[in-house]
């Protein structure tokens, strides 16, 4: 669930907000055996704020940073959802960086023992503590008291954390918006590919499904000559592990964990805020007039599949060779160095205890969230069916060996997420907004598996953006009236909802 829906501009190019810090307790639960031995120390948690719209009496909008640095979220204060809501309500916007991300690490490294305080319940307790203790230098007001309405916002994992915070600490907040809030924990999540199959370019999808079926037929045959020739077609003959091969060729569509190129998830409605890599890939697969050398690849493996043509294989393979393989700068494609394609088998790489967002995110995946992206058990697939739970679980084992005080579970402890309500999570003044073509939709409130039709109400507002992707409402362009109607109406709904919360909070 790594969340690459960030402004595609480099964070360093964005107007800077000063980083402030709060002394946040490392351990909010001194009596819970889960965190023994306990610590009484604090860490410096970073936050950034924009008071340019603020007027006395206005609300505070707490944007939960999620699995990235605070700087990567600056666009939300500039033209995105927080800017939209600040302008509409004379509010102040603040980005709170999650513990174990950006510059907000409790320790100088991330051993298994040191990561034991990276849990959902500790993270949402940070949000509650920040709401009660935050200060805003230069703002001529104290805003952490009960007289000030605070409203949360988060997208994706941060959206789930927003929902969990409202569920647990509801009386502290006037409301909260969880956008694409992945509130349901499950071990494997093959449904990630469902929106792509349903809504992607039809000829591109059908060709990939057919190619994957043929790939899996060759793999299942055990014919080493055929398997080696298959890998050679993609320029990946040096990869010994068939899972590494399958993962590498899945990258343009979306692989189990890595995102070396942008996928369906990174599409966005606003120019300059997403990437169309996915469509560039499909245009290669569906090219009606490829060069003869590429077109010939479509029949190269036909001898292994009863003479059937692999339509689009040449375009698929040429994209892998032209776009992906050059990312391995050493040229040793099987290398376990960063950027090469044997990396997933490098146990020492995974065990590196250096602080990083990738390591923190993997820890949360392995311990609580799950949602390993895998091939489906039945039906059409966009990735090889060798990509199953064990392929991802191996990284958990390598990355987090048992410590003195902490060991990861054999598979994620999904109860730590689902205890908040899963698909059916609700809390007073919690708004849940999702996108109808989001790859993460089936972990969210509007999931196809939720079982009941979602009807919005003032107490439990909800909104499904038809044609919307992964927390697309978080993006803005500085002019709501110029937005596409399906985004404009979602933003206007959020403004109306928030204004109602602010009015209602006056009678706290």
From TrEMBL:
User: Which top-level group of life is the source organism from?
Assistant: Eukaryota
Single Gene Ontology MF annotation: serine-type exopeptidase activity
Q: Which Gene3D superfamilies match?
A: alpha/beta hydrolase (3.40.50.1820)
**GO biological process: what's one of them?**
proteolysis
| InterPro entries named in the record | AB_hydrolase_fold, Peptidase_S28
Q: What Pfam families does the entry give? A: Peptidase_S28
Q: Which UniProt keywords apply?
A: Glycoprotein, Hydrolase, Protease, Signal
Family note: Belongs to the peptidase S28 family.
Protein name as annotated: Extracelular serine carboxypeptidase-like protein
